[in-house]
Give the backbone structure.
Amino acid sequence: MLTEGFDLTNSVEKSISAAMHSKRFPHAVIIEGGSSEERMSLAKKTAAALVCSGGGIKPCFSCSDCRKASADSHADILVYSVEDKPKAFKVDIVREIRNKAYIVPNEADRKVFILENSHTMGNEGQNAILKILEEPPSYINFILLCSSKSGFLPTVLSRATVYNLGETASEGSRDIPWEEVANAAKSIAVASAALDDIEIIKAAAVFEKNPKLLKAALPVIQEIYAQAMRKKYSACGEENEFSQTVSEIEPRLSRRALLALIENTDIIMNSIRLNANHNLTVTALCTKLRKAVTNQV
Ligand SMILES: [Zn+2]
């Protein structure tokens, strides 16, 4: 039972609420990190706010849509849950979702799909969902939940805004202030668009003695590139703390370069997961970002 609206002291919930109220909430979002309960609770809150027909703060908890949403009985909020194991999210389920997505909402103005453990979709499933993410009906929202977005194809990532609830305490990146992570990510993004080796090396210097910072910043760097990519497709950007950085880099980078940047950031994240040597990883980051941009057409 949902009883509380967005917690505005939490940076993720605050930015979801802000996007919602500016009516620029994206058609597809990925909520990663945190615990599965935290992800589902935020997804349900977001879904309630999307279908809410009250004025003012959403979810309002007084309209009939909110009441149904909080009792898990809203006909336009569809939750698909699968186990967290490879390929649990079968392509048949994705096809069913796709078919349902083309049917207009029953009661609300919007139809919201919450897909739990959606990272377990294989490539076939992801390609099936990609088709609808590319040209979603105007009333559709997808909320994809996963422990880590690393299971998604770059093409899917480039279509969704990622909200990160933070890693589990054992993985230890919680002790780095968000400000520091965001600033490091912004500097790297700007430097990589500047076509200047020295700028990238300078921006990456903060990671040299700080593996935790690198680990925390990479998903954020990737999200900045993904936002720039979405800006290219939609012309209007998203309102959040990265808007300025995105506006700065987007005109300088081609779609191909942005996709390569998203993919290469992924490669670096994977090598960290495989416990690669830290200094070599920082060097590889500089080289890979540079390559992604210089190979652009
Ligand atoms: Zn409401």
User: Anything to note?
Assistant: Strands lie at 28-32, 77-81, 111-116, 140-146, 161-164. Residues 11-166 form a domain with the Rossmann fold fold (CATH 3.40.50.300). The chain is about 50% helix and 10% strand. The CA atoms of residues 205 and 282 lie 8 Å apart.
